[in-house]
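TICKET: design request
STATUS: open
ATTACHED STRUCTURE:
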């Protein structure tokens, strides 16, 4: 699985890097790629868990 997020809105990457089980709301999110601006992803916990599986 590959996860890509903008540096201005990356709650899944932050949770993954911090070994968190779920994402946190990303305040003041910004990206020019509007489709990637998801400050509170519905499947955030699933994304983090799936990214850690081998």
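STATUS: resolved
RESOLUTION: sequence designed for all positions
ATTACHED SEQUENCE:
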């Amino acid at each position: 699985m590959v996860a890509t997020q903008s540096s201005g809105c990356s709650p899944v990457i932050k949770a993954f890097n911090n070994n968190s089980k779920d994402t946190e709301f990303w305040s003041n999110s910004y990206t020019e790629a509007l489709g990637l601006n998801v400050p509170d992803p519905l499947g955030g916990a699933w994304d983090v868990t799936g990214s850690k599986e081998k």
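CLOSING REMARK: Residues 12 and 47 are 7 Å apart (CA to CA). The radius of gyration is 10 Å.
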